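lol so apparently i was supposed to do this last week
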Amino acid sequence: MTWGYSQETCPHSETRQVWVEEEDAWSGEDISHWEDKWESWDVDIDIHRFKCTRCGRIGYYSGAARAFYEDGKRSPGIRGLE
Ligand SMILES: [Zn+2]
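anyway here it is w/ zinc ion bound
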């Protein structure tokens, strides 16, 4: 399946409208409504990196993590990257 997103144009998240069924606890009135639900497409691929499931772009939780994975630079004191 192709999502049609390139890493440059992919929003890496979406806001969907979801129907929330709700009843006012006090009056019993039906107060069901539409709600915006923000959803990230990023999933963690290890403790310092995440990846967008739609376009495959990889992000880092810190500059030290980016330096480690892109340049192979180790940073003292960062778990897993020392
Ligand atoms: Zn993306």
